[in-house]
Amino acid sequence: MPPLAIFLILLSTFLHAGWNLVLRNRRSDYAFLDIVIVTSVVGLGPALAAEFGPQPMLMHVKGYLLLAGFFQAVYYLGLTQGYRHGDFTVVYPIARSLPVLLVAIGDVTRGRAPSLIGWLGMILVSLGCVFIPLESWRGFSRDRFWNRAMLWAAVTALGIVGYTLTDKIAAEFITPGPWSAARYAVYEAAASVVVYWFILKWFVRPAPRQTAWADWRWAALAALGVFGAYWLILWSYQLAAQASYVVALRQFSIIIGVVLGAIFLREVAPMLRLSAACIIVIGIAGIVLGG
Q: Considering the entire predicted model, what is its pTM?
């Protein structure tokens, strides 16, 4: 992988783990809706103005944006409900592990199969993600992985696979560079607002709420992390041939998440969990060096 892509992905992992940690303590169904509304309100004006410039974007990727917006909304739903029913250090790793090999299969179908070392690295990353929720080997049971929180983690993973493959293809139709990646991210956020609003209205039916100014200030802060993290990923899609490598490297955020969860949420981080984190690091190193 190009060094710049590796740098962008690893930088995004710190932002990604940070906003997930913040969201873990905000169990409102409206949390993600507020975040993408802030992103859309702030970013749509400049993005639409750029459509009148020499490099319009919407005409080339509008179909991909609608599809990606749908999968983003599924991701928001799964993650919010998963955090409501399970621990951050359980839901987060499982939701991030499942897409790694699934996206790799997508790369194979597009004629961009990972290398042997790349496959080994992704397998290690996936295994580390499976074991990292465990506190001990005695905790390895069906009940640990077969419950409502894990169901929502699987929904989250489905959303990740969907928008990852869609965005990787769309990234190849737009002008490479950080500005185009930022515009695409704004459009995708706007598309997900509409879908997620309907999901909340018709399927979740959250309790009515009164949004205080403090809620919008929190949403604005979280929006910086959400938008910034994925903007860097979209930029890296333009540099890396395999989306699966990008997804695998993003799992470094799990290591950061485990550390932050242990420090700020007082969640346990026993030796088995730390060992699983080391497996993830070895897998990531293999992808960086031989992918």
A: 0.87
